[in-house]
Amino acid sequence: MRFSGFRVIREAVTGHKGWTPLWRNPAPKPQYDIVIIGGGGHGLATAFYLAKAFGQARVAVLEKGWLGSGNIGRNTTIIRSNYLLPGNQPFYEFSMQLWEGLEQEFNFNAMVSQRGIINLFHTDAQRDAYRRRGNAMHLSGAGGQLLDRDALRRMVPFLNYDNARFPIKGGLYQPRAGTARHDGVAWGYARGADMRGVDLIQNCEVTGFRIEQGAVRGVETSQGFIAAGKVGVAVAGSSGRVMAMAGLRLPIESHVLQAFVSEGLKPVIPGVITFGAGHFYISQSDKGGLVFGGDIDGYNSYAQRGNLPVVEDVAEGGMALMPMIGRARLLRSWGGIMDMSMDGSPIIDRTPVDGLFFNGGWCYGGFKATPASGFAFAHLLATGRPHATATAYRLDRFARGHLLDERGAGAQPNLH
Ligand SMILES: Cc1cc2nc3c(=O)[nH]c(=O)nc-3n(C[C@H](O)[C@H](O)[C@H](O)COP(=O)(O)OP(=O)(O)OC[C@H]3O[C@@H](n4cnc5c(N)ncnc54)[C@H](O)[C@@H]3O)c2cc1C
């Protein structure tokens, strides 16, 4: 079934009897060419591109819960390509280009909204760093403008420009950035993959790997053994636990990240705004809720909920940036598990086990990367070679000293 305006009108006048489920619910087959573990954004996007761009039909995605139950449905929905390092910037720009055509490509409304992002700067040194980042963005075609205080004031007059501790001096603006409806992205990729013959198997937890003579032969699951020539792991916050079943220890820690939504308000925030003197980012959903977040919890955890010190820290960031937020009432908050790598950048690579491939270490930034991550992982699985924009995302870069430390924070995952 294809979605279109015509289809919506036809269903409206015929009693909405023609809609069909977005995907099938198949039983697992005994064997696939490629099995993807994890039905989050990255796993589903990988399966979609494997089928669509690389002609692989015998593919299954195994998800321990329901599709989209992990971070893909829990994030603050920000998409952008405003990175600095040559190993990162072209990859995230590739992702932005895929976002721009995504809804047409998988024929699903994911509410991709390019309403822009402003990263505020508060010191001269920070302005210089943003200028450098803006130049790197221009090199990959990502665009971007450095706004001075007056230009910024015209766009977002409600910020606290003269805060005694954190005066706002300007911002780095990327007009092509924005937001997308996170679960719509998961559903769109799932539907697109299912339409092309991929089996999406929910309530199917991978409990072990069958490895013989250094090569993966398949996976043990809660629904029995499933044989596969290649296995791709894309389980985000569960990366350490899943790869440990294959005997591998990753340069990744898992931490909780919380998100918050206020009651619905009239439109006030034009795009995404990030505070440069603390960690606070905010946008406004189409329903009117202010959607915001801050730092991860400082300790390792696999819990999908946060605690009060971070709630207080995020509220303080919001109040310092835009005091009017103090009058909005909080509607909901929740947590997801972040796979924090040692340098803050991701890994898309083969592993020492033949036929076993890994995708993870996305930290805070995996949602915006979903299309490029899926495409690059599909490229690696199908061809055995890394995609041109993802050659830096090697698993062994930590041993070789080729780090991609965008924030310059060192090997302290909770600071990335
Ligand atoms: C609160 C919050 C805010 C965020 N905000 C942003 C943002 O604004 N912009 C941005 O770019 N990024 C953001 N992120 C990060 C982004 O959401 C993640 O990096 C990205 O979604 C991770 O990839 P994924 O979608 O594949 O993960 P997930 O959706 O977590 O998918 C992994 C899946 O693997 C499954 N799984 C785990 N173990 C097994 C097993 N043994 N067998 C089978 N399945 C298994 C899980 O159930 C899960 O569904 C945010 C994250 C959070 C939590």
Automatic annotation (TrEMBL):
Protein family: Belongs to the SoxB family.
GO biological process terms on file: tetrahydrofolate metabolic process
Lineage: Bacteria, Pseudomonadati, Pseudomonadota, Alphaproteobacteria, Rhodobacterales
Keywords attached to this entry: Cytoplasm, FAD, Flavoprotein, FMN, Nucleotide-binding, Oxidoreductase
A single GO cellular-component term on record: cytoplasm
Compartment(s): Cytoplasm
Residue span, Rhodanese domain: 34-78
GO molecular function annotations of the record: nucleotide binding; sarcosine oxidase activity
InterPro entries membership: FAD-dep_OxRdtase, FAD/NAD-bd_sf, Rhodanese-like_dom, SoxB
Keyword Cytoplasm: yes
Name this polypeptide is given: Sarcosine oxidase subunit beta
Keyword Nucleotide-binding: yes
PANTHER family registered for this protein in UniProt: FAD-DEPENDENT OXIDOREDUCTASE DOMAIN-CONTAINING PROTEIN 1, SARCOSINE DEHYDROGENASE-RELATED
Needed cofactors: FMN; FAD
Gene3D superfamilies according to UniProt: D-Amino Acid Oxidase, subunit A, domain 2 (3.30.9.10), FAD/NAD(P)-binding domain (3.50.50.60)
Catalyses which reaction(s): sarcosine + O2 + H2O = formaldehyde + glycine + H2O2; sarcosine + (6S)-5,6,7,8-tetrahydrofolate + O2 = (6R)-5,10-methylene-5,6,7,8-tetrahydrofolate + glycine + H2O2
E.C. designation(s): 1.5.3.24
Class of the enzyme per the UniProt entry, highest EC level: oxidoreductase
